[in-house]
Amino acid sequence: xxxxIKTLFLSVFLFLIWACSARIFFEKGEVAxxxxxxxxxxxxxxxxxxxxxxxxxxxxxxxKAIIEASNFxxxxxxxxxxxGDLKLALIEFEKALGFNPENMEAGRMKRVxxxxxEEERKKAREKTEVEIVKEEAKKKKEETPSLPSIVTPIxxxxxxxxxxxxxxxxxxxxxxxxxxxxSFQSKKIxxxxxxxxxxxxxxxxxxxxxLFYKIIDxxxxxxxxxxxxxxxxYEEVVMKTFFLSNTDPNQLQTILRSLxxxxxxxxxxALNCITVRDTPKKxxxxxxxxxxxxxxxxxxxxxxxxxxxxxxxxxxxxxxLSQYQILETLSPGLPTExxxxxxxxxxxxxxxxxxxxxxxISYKLLQTDTKSKIIAKPQLRVLxxxxxxxxxxxxxxxxxxTFVPIAGGGPSQQPITSFQMQDIGINIDLTPxxxxxxxxxxxxxxxxxxxxxxxxxxxxxxxxxxxxxxxxRLRDNETG
Length: 480
What we know:
Elements: H1 2-34, H2 38-51, H3 56-83, H4 86-99, H5 104-125, H6 129-143, E1 154-162, H7 163-174, E2 177-180, E3 188-196, H8 198-209, E4 211-217, E5 220-225, H9 228-234, E6 238-243, H10 249-259, E7 264-268, E8 273-278, H11 280-293, E9 299-303, E10 306-309, E11 319-321, E12 326-328, E13 354-356, E14 361-363, E15 372-376, E16 379-383, E17 388-405, E18 413-434, E19 440-453, E20 462-474
Parallel strand pairs: 2-5
Antiparallel strand pairs: 1-3, 4-5, 6-8, 7-8, 9-16, 10-15, 11-14, 12-13, 17-18, 18-19, 19-20
Helix pairs in contact: 1-2, 2-3, 3-4, 3-5, 4-5
């Protein structure tokens, strides 16, 4: 009996401790809510519910904390997404969905991030060899040694001094070792290189002495006589391939030969690319020329409207006068004898004794056009300086008879009839040229063919033709 009481007392004691711990976790969760520590609040409320699963207040606060935590991570994910950090954004969106799987906005943003990450991976996989070569060339260019940048101006003036002595003076200033080509011949010159940077002074000295240089390493430069043979010997030759998107490589080859004077050029029509081989400066110039000329062609959208008009005209022309008459009225008291007026009566007659009725004149002109319909109203999309063709109508067989000789007796020639298909209807050819000032020159050829006489068994049909060719100049949205 005593053991039973101890066991019961211990059970009640443990239950009270368990209930108190649930209350403690709930209070910690409330504090976390006030501090907007949503993740901790969710954890505390979950522990409280584990101890009191049927407590409705615990469940209500847990639901609130879950919603707030999900929205918090959604906002953080959007911040990372705007900064371009897709990995952290994806982590935050997954946390938001972990708290609340029904958060539709978090699910949508997660799909957007995954799609964008896949696009970036695809672009990385599709990185061409040309881009790799460009990056390597750029890196090599950055690593290429150059003349030292000495800020302090040089103030030197030489009169009839040997070239090697001048280079020794520059060597003391810059710390660069000057080597000389085997064909270098020193001579005495006079030069003023005052108030110049080291680079400007060095290049002026080389220009006056007809020399050029090549950098061996950051501390060594070789001085070389400037002539074509030495240029070919010392100048670095590079090769570069350019993949074209719009320009014809054959036309570009002519441009590069005339402008950049590049002699070694190879074309691959299958890949639409051009490869040049020359000095780095000429290859760099070729790249600039290619960028200028390899532009996409402009496009133009032309609205064409073709009408078929069947006119029934009604015209009524002419001048019509209304009925008119001339009446006279004599002054009252004037003696008259019927309709007779004697000569002595004219002194009593004035202008007010007469009344004239002037006829009205009407001019009538009436014209009406009916039964017009649209045959076609196509929208033609064409590249700059390319021809677009529209054919509306039928192909009609036209008999053509030829005579061929036959062997043996009978007639000397035998007729053979064949048929050629002739386009009957409307033919339109348009060739636009887009100008830089916004104008468009449109070369237009319009041709209408029709059968005027269907022909007979012995005579071919007669085909009528109406055509016009013109060049017009229009602006955008202008009708020609």
